[in-house]
Specification:
Layout (H helix, E strand, L loop, with lengths): L4 H21 L9 H14 L3 E2 L12 E4 L2 E3 L13 E10 L2 E10 L5 H20 L6 H14 L3 E2 L5 E3 L6 E5 L16 E4 L2 E3 L5 E3 L6 E3 L5 E3 L2 E5 L4 E3 L15
Antiparallel strand pairs: 1-4, 2-4, 3-12, 4-5, 6-10, 7-8, 9-14, 10-13, 11-12, 14-15
The protein binds 2-amino-4-trifluoromethylsulfanyl-butyric acid (MF3) and cobalt (II) ion (CO) (2 copies).
Length: 257
């Protein structure tokens, strides 16, 4: 087995910077703030801490982070549009440090949100964590998807099919694709030293997605709410390491809910 401890160390530095960026943006999330203001603060925090925002100019993406509100499934583009009371918001940050990628996203609440928003966000978080906790060498990729699908569908939600998790490391997106739906005990086996994201997008209604004309923003076709969380993890000899954990636990309940 190739020694991957140095590689994991670098992945963790990038992951921690991405997580910290989401920590420091948290107090700014209030009614009246524009998503491009949040984008700028994230960009500067990453830059001032020795990193670069991977999304900026990635395949022509115009901003540093993705901001996806309410029925936006993913890849929302920061703009002068302001947040309003009761919005739910995902911010997805990817920091590159020393050539390594840390990719993570969380949900935020703008003021008070509805009980149905909270339930969707909670189920999405729990489905991601449930899948992460299974990860160890020998687990099949299908088990990750099956776990997320079963848990969220039992609650009446649906799993987005059009976007998936991915290998990440010295390149932003690489093999394998990590599907968030699927069948137990199918697909390739997970191996020690692998690094990838788990990032389920869960819809309150149907799983169908529509692309907006900007070429990036994906929304639910039925306009129902959508939630997402993302961590970057590495596979160890007997389990996993989460590279994008928040040091102050802002990535988990009860802070979140
Ligand atoms: N961070 C997203 C992911 O989880 C990718 C964003 S690419 C962008 O894979 F170009 F839309 F920013
Ligand atoms: Co990702
Ligand atoms: Co991401």
């Amino acid at each position: 087995m190739k020694d991957y401890s140095n590689y994991f160390k670098k992945m963790k530095i990038a992951g921690k910077l991405a997580a910290k960026t989401l920590d420091i943006i948290t107090p700014y999330i209030k009614p009246g703030v524009s998503t491009e203001t949040l984008d700028k603060i994230c960009y500067e925090h990453i830059r001032d801490n020795g990193g670069y925002s991977a999304p900026l100019y990635y395949r022509g993406f115009p901003k540093s982070v993705c901001t996806s509100t309410n029925h936006i499934v993913c890849h929302g583009i920061p703009s002068n549009k302001v947040l309003k009371e009761s919005d739910i918001l995902n911010i997805d940050v990817t920091a590159i440090v020393d050539g390594h990628h840390g990719d993570t996203s969380r949900m935020f609440f703008v003021g008070d949100v509805s009980v149905k928003s909270k339930n969707l966000v909670k189920a999405t978080y729990e489905s991601m964590m449930m899948a992460i906790k299974l990860v160890k060498p020998g687990l099949k990729l299908g088990d990750i998807g099956a776990t997320i699908q079963k848990y969220t569908e039992e609650k009446g939600f649906s799993v987005v099919r059009d976007f998936c998790g991915h290998g990440t490391g010295t390149t932003f997106h690489k093999d394998p694709n990590i599907l968030h739906y699927g069948k137990e005990n199918t697909g390739p086996s997970i191996e020690e030293g692998m690094t990838f994201t788990i990032e389920p997008m869960i819809n309150e209604g149907k799983f169908d997605v529509k692309m907006l004309k900007d070429g990036w923003t994906a929304v639910t076709k039925d306009k129902s709410l959508s939630a997402q969380f993302e961590h970057t993890i590495g596979v160890t000899h007997n389990g996993y390491e989460i590279f994008t954990e928040s040091d102050i636990k802002f990535d988990q309940p009860p802070y979140l809910l």
